[in-house]
Write a structure and sequence with these properties.
The structure holds two protein chains of two kinds. Chain A contains six helices and seven strands; from the N terminus they run ααββββαβααββα. Chain A is of the alpha+beta class. Chain B has a domain of 247 residues. The chains are: A alpha+beta, B mainly alpha. Chain B: It comes from Reyranella aquatilis.
Chain lengths: 196, 569
């Protein structure tokens, strides 16, 4: 038994140094050299300031911006650390709603959003994502918002439509995943359009 | 359901089949200690490890010595990880200043990662320092996976050897898998994941000012290196709370495909290793065929349920064409979310790219059934193969009873001792699942857990104990599990699910290794054809169905009918 104990302790230490220290640190070095942007979190800067990450969704509420999906992330209640409060797109605490399909809370929430957004609204605009940080919406969900965005910005719908088309990503290699639009990138392009 | 969805499912299945044989051959060479491509680099490292640890890798261990070495290694690993988590606030690489992990949570987490379960009562980015993730959790991701593979190979040796006392050397098996298989693949996978967008840094969390001027704190960390082993080792514990639904942990459909392949690759390859070891690769393909039948049935049901969407949401005037999107990411949609869920629970991975708690009742029942059947559909690395081989022993025993002769499997007579230990292993998991679920469904501490009311709340409890006892680690995440009651009972369930299978399984391996090889005769039941595959699938379904149908009827099945009737909870 003692023999096994010694072997266990030594083996665990060796493995911890190799797999727990050397491997991840070497990978930090390699990743930072080969793909510095991705390794650093795919951050987006505007005028020298970090405005977010292309991979991480953020909250948009203004009429002139395309909105992402509802988000179920929360944060600690500043008044009482044992409680949580709703904090959409909290990228320091990813989470889904975990509401089941027969949950009254789910159906009430969806009803409220669907009534506000109108009949025929695409399902991704009234459902929360798994991470609460989904950076994308479906092409149908973007199309649903074109009229509102154009009106708020005083642009013609056809201009906004062209921008949406430009930012629509198809399936990878025509096969993998679903067609989608990155909301942050689209909105940054909209802001760029307005400046011209 | 779309043609594109089916095409992606077919692509995945085809790629797994393509990988099975070459990877099986490589694993076979590594585990037998033969020379491989990487030997010039790794052989000196391997020898150094043995020398420092005082191990003779050529020493053959009996099943009992093998089991003891494995158990002692787990105990030491537990102590190390527990104290690392308890002391993380005093240790370096903690830029966010995470406090020490509470005792019950640290204990639960240590058991969870040692048993290859990776049940998480915590959210990674709000609880763990980078050092805990790297040197604690990631290390056990490697070692628990290596242990699983070592154990499966030990059982295979039981079938392959004749009149032998030993079933191999635990230390040599564990070290070889880690150095020659897991680490090299993880190096490649990490670089691939970073290319796709997964972060790999030690920075503190980024403070961004959003386009609309709000503050957004974006969690960072050495994600890619942990992600690589989390998938390849079928561990499944996410760096982030949202696991592989998090865009940092699974940014693209391509990273998603590689993650899915990582889950199945080694498990599928081990069936081929089994075939090679017993001298007839068809035996391995027969096992893989039985797994595939069960897998495809699960994919069809789950994809159908999720692609159909939630009729209660459709009734509100919402365009449901994309399916049930609550808890799913747009880049994956219904097909890839359903496929991932079936894969992750067929294997004992437990990573998720969508929130299973929000799946349709029947869609969420498929992952549950996959785990209840014992995770023998590909299964965890190693665990799947030894689980399925135990069912093969049972199936062949049942067949023997029907025709009234002593059953044989790949040349070994299956007798009373093997069948007794097999049944012990097969019955312990239901005992833990049903016992604890019943307990949690009546005591106040248990009833405080579920987030959803009605039958779905019961499903959350049933899912938790199933996931723990099956060493899966996925969750119906609404359950508030970070309490002393759940952390404690789930830890016990995880230990039962690991050791109450492993130890009887090693006893079977020892008993089989000691037997003579029986020569095949005209009366030998062939175990490489469709008849055997059917028998094996039947044994799995009958044992699982008889045990768990009542519990399923109280959860997802009744919820499905409530949904059809429009009842809300």
């Amino acid at each position: 038994m003692l023999r096994h104990f010694r072997a266990s302790v030594v083996m665990l230490l060796l493995m911890t140094v190799l797999l727990g220290i050397a491997y991840p640190l070497a990978m930090v070095g390699v990743a930072g050299a080969a793909f510095p942007g991705q390794a650093g979190g795919s951050l987006v800067e505007k005028d020298g300031k970090v405005v977010g990450s292309t991979l991480i969704g953020q909250s948009f509420t203004g009429e002139g911006y395309f909105h992402g999906r509802p988000s179920a992330t929360t944060d600690t209640d500043p008044a009482d650390s044992a409680k949580t409060v709703a904090a959409p797109y909290n990228a320091a605490n990813s989470a889904g709603s975990n509401l089941g399909p027969t949950s009254k809370a789910l159906i009430d929430r969806v009803k409220e959003d669907a009534d506000r957004l109108g009949k025929g609204v695409p399902v991704d605009l009234v459902t929360t994502s798994g991470s609460g940080l989904d950076p994308h919406v479906s092409p149908a969900a973007a199309a649903w918002q074109i009229a509102r965005v154009a009106r708020a910005r005083g642009l013609r719908e056809i201009e906004v439509q062209a921008l949406v088309n430009q930012y629509t990503e198809g399936r990878m290699y025509g096969l993998l995943g679903e067609p989608r639009i990155n909301v942050l990138q689209l909105n940054l392009a909209l802001d760029g359009l307005a400046k011209r | 359901m779309t043609l594109n969805g089916w095409a992606q499912i077919a692509l995945f299945c085809g790629l797994v089949l393509l990988l099975t044989r070459p990877l099986g051959g490589y694993l076979d060479n590594v585990m037998a200690g033969r020379r491989t491509l990487l030997s010039p680099v790794l052989r000196p490292v391997e020898r150094g490890f043995y020398r420092l640890a005082g191990i003779d890798p050529s020493e053959e261990q009996s099943w009992w010595v093998y089991a003891r070495a494995m158990v002692v290694f787990h105990i030491v690993g537990f102590a190390f990880l527990y104290f690392l988590l308890r002391l993380q606030d005093l240790l370096p690489l903690n830029p966010q200043g995470m406090s020490a992990v509470a005792p019950d949570l640290a204990g639960n987490t240590a058991v969870s990662f040692l048993t290859n379960t990776n049940w998480q009562s915590y959210g990674g980015e709000t609880t763990m320092s980078y050092l805990s993730q790297m040197a604690g959790l990631s290390v056990q991701n490697f070692l628990s996976a290596a242990t699983g593979i070592a154990l499966a190979v030990a059982l295979v040796r039981g079938f392959a050897r004749a009149e032998s006392k030993g079933i191999g050397n635990f230390w040599a098996d564990m070290v070889r898998v880690t150095l020659y298989v897991l680490l090299p693949f993880c190096l490649l996978l990490t670089v691939f994941y970073v290319w796709q967008g997964v972060p790999q840094n030690l920075s503190s969390y980024v403070e961004a000012t959003t386009v609309e001027g709000a503050k957004q704190t974006i969690a960072q960390g050495p994600v890619a290196s942990q992600l690589a082993i989390k998938m390849l080792g079928t561990n499944g514990g996410g760096f982030f709370n949202a696991n592989s639904a998090h865009p940092y942990e699974n940014p693209t459909a391509l990273s998603n495909l590689v993650q899915m392949l990582s889950i199945f690759a080694i498990g599928a390859a081990l069936t081929n290793l089994f075939g090679r070891a017993v001298g007839d690769e068809r035996q391995g393909w027969a096992i893989l065929a039985a797994m595939s039948v069960l897998f495809l049935a699960g994919v069809v049901v789950c994809y159908w349920a999720e692609a159909g969407g939630n009729p209660l949401i459709g009734a509100l005037g919402v365009d449901n064409a994309a399916g049930n999107m609550e808890g799913k990411e747009v880049r994956f949609g219904a097909p890839l979310s359903a496929l991932f869920a079936v894969i992750t629970t067929a294997a004992s991975c437990g990573a998720v790219n969508a929130m299973l708690d929000s799946f349709m009742p029947l869609g969420g029942m498929v992952p549950l059934i996959n785990m209840l059947l014992g995770e023998i559909i590909i299964g965890g690395v190693g665990a799947g193969l030894y689980g399925m081989l135990l069912f093969a022993v049972l199936a062949i025993f049942l067949a023997g009873l029907m025709v009234g002769r002593t059953p044989e499997y790949v040349g070994k007579k299956i007798e009373a001792r093997e069948v007794k230990f097999t049944m012990l292993a097969i019955l312990c998991v239901p005992l833990a699942v049903l016992g604890f679920t019943a307990l949690a469904s009546v005591v106040p501490a248990g009833l405080a857990g579920p987030a959803n009311a009605g039958p779905h709340g019961f499903s959350e409890i049933l899912y938790a104990y199933t996931s723990a006892a099956a060493n899966n680690g996925s969750a119906f995440g609404g359950l508030t599990a970070n309490t002393v009651f759940y952390n404690g009972t789930l830890a016990v369930a995880m230990m039962v699910g690991r050791f109450a299978i492993i130890i009887p399984m090693l006893a079977v391996a020892g008993a089989l290794a000691a037997k003579r090889k029986a020569a095949a005769s005209a009366g030998t039941f062939p175990t490489h054809g469709p008849l055997f595959v059917g028998l094996l699938v039947g044994a799995v379904l009958i044992v699982g169905g008889l045990t768990f149908l009542p519990a399923l009827a109280l959860g997802p099945i009744v919820e499905h009918f409530a949904l059809l009737a429009g009842t809300l909870f």
